[in-house]
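user: can you give me the structure for this one chain? tokens are fine.
assistant: on it. calling the predictor now.
[tool input]
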Amino acid sequence: MSPLRHGEQKLSFLDLLQISKTIQRFFFFDGPDLPPFPSVVSALRSSLASTLAVFLPLAGKLAFRPASGDVVIDFSPAAVSSGVKFVEAEFSGGADVMRRLARDDEHDKEAFGQLVPVLEAGQLPVPVLAVQVTRPAGGGGAVAVGVAIQHAVADGQAVWRFMRAWSTASREGPSSLASPGFVQPTFDRAGIRHPRADDIACTVLSLVAPALPLLRSTSAKPEILQQSRRTFVLRADEIRSLKQHMLEQSRELNGGEPSSKPPSAYVAIASLVWTSVVRATASTLDADDVHLMVSADCRNRLRPPLGDAFFGTCVKPCFARARAGDLRGEAGVARAAAAIQDAIRAYLEELGDDPLSDTESWMATFRAIPQDRFLAVGSSNRFMAYETDFGWGGPSRVELVSVFMRQMVTLLGARDGGVQYFQ
């Protein structure tokens, strides 16, 4: 029976790795074409309803089935009947305060928290999605659209696919969701295969949610909440210069021979951040190994491929390793890039059509890595967040509010070919 007709979809072992995480992000708008707040709310409500009819699992709940031990997305009529929480809120400060918040590189965690909805995440069943629209105190001139999504239901690719569909429906009307150019999302996890999939799922749940239906949040740990965060933007010309500098470093390391593979913007920025963190961490000795995790999308590497329409989690980690002293050296950024490229080759490219075959191995690798020498890279510069146009222009600021690890950096595509990242 089709999962959509059945109204229930069992989570894959890849989904379950994210079961205790909620993605909270806000989009700040203050452009000249911004309508009055009631019009903004009306447009967002109606277009969200149209979009959820296509992305129906987002209107459902994550639920636990004790008889089977499975965690599922329940989007049966009963589960979706209560609808998605849509909150209209007022910020504690005026429009100028919100604009200043949107311009500051340093994250004001308390203020950011006012701009996103909170999803109940203590015990299953829990809603999958919530939306909050926030205006400044005492009037208009700015608005923040906050979204919270259970990470177990959607990875970054899926989240941005939903946001693109929703903003297009708001800007162009619900008919855009039925246009010939719109690819309908698919939710079936049957294509995510492993000979020991059920055993892996049990292992994952024993580690991340051992007391189901109770969940434990990873973003509420004090050492994560207390950390300061800052956003940086690299312009397109700065990225080109960085990549050229890395190529020159690589040529010197290789005795004048050019690098076999020039770094992508993603690899270049990940390398820059990794070396910066290692150089700033005095407790790490030069002889210590340091580790970086990047995520690789496997949708089109599986056989048969799931395709870009797949809505779920289909990413795997690739773990790079290097000596701290090597990354602190003069050619540290080039050495970091080489380590990242080697990791992508080993964890992804060399596995060919079966990129998930080493799942148990990389799970063991992750558990063995010392967390004080570990940095994770999330999201991607391919996610064009600033093209999220609901009909009144793109946002002036997009930020991730939820953080899942102590040492984590996330990337987003910025305007004019730049890249935004925060750590």
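assistant: here you go. The domain at 3-219 is CATH 3.30.559.10 (Chloramphenicol Acetyltransferase). The chain is about 35% helix and 20% strand.
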